[in-house]
Design brief:
Layout lengths: L37 H13 L3 E6 L4 H4 L4 E3 L1 H9 L6 E5 L2 H10 L5 E3 L15 H13 L6 E6 L4 H9 L3 E3 L4 H9 L4 E5 L2 H11 L7 E4 L10 H6 L2 E4 L11 H10 L4 E4 L5 H6 L2 E2 L2 H10 L5 E5 L2 H10 L4 E4 L15 H12 L6 E2 L3 H15 L4
Parallel strand pairs: 1-2, 1-3, 3-4, 5-6, 5-7, 7-9, 8-9, 10-11, 10-12, 12-13
Antiparallel strand pairs: 4-14
Helix pairs in contact: 1-14, 3-4, 4-15, 6-15
Bound molecules: 1,3-dihydroxyacetonephosphate and iron/sulfur cluster.
Iron/sulfur cluster binds next to loops.
Length: 385
């Protein structure tokens, strides 16, 4: 079992240098500059001192002040691959959230340490599926007589415990870039899929990419006896979706799509598959963060884009493409509050500590969990492209 985040010491934004700079809490739509102008220089100096000994990974939802120090940026799939491809770096600093750092630890060698600059950078979606709940769900599937034909597939956005559960039961991890390939593989192996923990990615992929009917999917609610489902409903379903969602992408609504279409003539609506089904149905294009970036890059000058994903990425895209009209899909802004916890002070602390020979905030998955979780991650990496 991995150590739960809540038992680890928390580091607060703005602690030390400027306690008043609790950034990201109000979501005012704009982030104030880093509290200490010398921080950029300190981060640069510490990184330079570390040289090839450190490899900094930055997820697309990270703040600009952090992303500028990333050796590679990417979605969770690309970053997992990149972490696995750097055996020579003893230190991997993961600017992302806890489940990503866990995956990096699982995929890297024993002599490498993975550091998460703020241990409080969790993920509300990953927290919606606990190990005990998923074990209980499997018991329910066994009681219904269907467990033998069910292949578990978990989204990357899940704890190492859940990935290990999936590995133990012959399943795979997937990301928003390869969910269809993962489901094609899983249905070649079994009759049904238990999809964890994001019901929206599961439903959107099953219905829009696999040609399933909405009625082929049922939602297992871990807070209700037997998931709130009858044994007949479980037996009739092809896709058993876990009742989890992303608190950022879950905010977008059909109304936000209608509103932007009324307001901006000719606008293209581009959303992440973690959005609700009715939002995705109303969009023009759907894809992972890497897909969203490539689509905006390839778009013609003068075109308009309403993008339904995390604000740091949308704002960065808008700044990088001033010749295109790139806007946030919703009228009210929302950062991912946990992604946003990684700020420059935390990054500086990580880099300076490493340069001084001290590893702080190391993420380490215990060996047994790592063994089975690696099986599920390796299965994902081996999916046909
Ligand atoms: P991707 O990086 O797979 O697009 O996922 C988005 C996300 O919500 C990560 O937390
Ligand atoms: Fe989790 Fe959503 Fe934040 Fe991604 S954007 S880390 S899924 S809460």
């Amino acid at each position: 079992m991995t150590t739960p985040v809540r038992d680890l010491p928390l580091l607060f934004l703005g602690e030390g240098a400027d306690p008043a700079s609790e950034r990201g809490v109000d979501c005012p739509g704009d982030l104030p500059p880093a509290s200490d102008p010398a921080l950029v220089e300190r981060a640069r100096a510490a990184k330079e001192a570390l040289g090839d000994r450190v490899f900094v990974l930055g997820h697309h939802y990270q703040r600009d002040e952090v992303i500028q120090f990333a050796d590679v940026t990417g979605d969770s799939f690309k970053l997992a691959r990149q972490a696995a491809a750097r055996p020579e770096a003893p230190y991997i600093v993961f600017c992302g959230v806890h489940f990503m750092a866990e995956s990096a630890d699982i995929l890297t060698a024993d002599h490498q340490s993975v550091v998460l600059p703020d241990l409080a950078a969790g993920c509300s979606m990953a927290d919606m599926a606990t190990f005990d709940q998923v074990e209980e769900c499997w018991d329910v599937l066994e009681d219904a007589g269907i467990a033998d034909g069910v292949v578990p597939v978990t989204y990357m956005n899940s704890s190492a415990d859940i990935k290990a559960f999936v590995g133990r039961h012959g399943g795979t991890v997937c990301t928003s870039s390869n969910a269809k390939r993962a489901l094609d593989w899983a249905y070649g192996k079994g009759e049904k899929v238990l999809f964890l923990p994001d019901q929206h990615l599961g439903r959107n992929t099953a219905v829009l990419e696999m040609g399933f009917a909405l009625d082929d999917c049922v939602v297992y609610n871990p807070h209700r006896p037997d998931g709130g489902l009858t044994q007949k409903e479980l037996r009739d379903a092809k896709m058993i979706l876990w009742r989890g969602h992303c608190s950022v992408h879950g905010r977008f609504s059909k109304e936000s799509v209608d509103e932007v279409r009324d307001r901006v003539p000719g606008v293209n609506v581009l959303v992440h598959p973690e959005c609700r089904h009715e939002v995705v149905l109303g969009a023009d294009l759907i894809g992972s963060t890497e897909y969203i970036i490539k689509t905006i890059e390839a778009a013609p000058s003068g075109s308009s884009w309403a993008v339904g994903t995390e604000l740091n990425l949308v704002r960065r895209l808008a700044n990088a493409h001033p010749d295109k009209n790139v806007m946030f899909l919703d009228k009210t802004v929302c950062f991912c509050s946990t992604m946003n916890r990684i700020d420059l002070p935390h990054l500086v602390r990580s880099l300076e500590s490493l340069a001084a020979g001290e590893v702080v905030n190391r993420i380490q998955v215990d060996e047994e969990t790592a063994h089975y979780a690696r099986a599920a991650l390796d299965q994902m990496l081996a999916l046909p492209s």
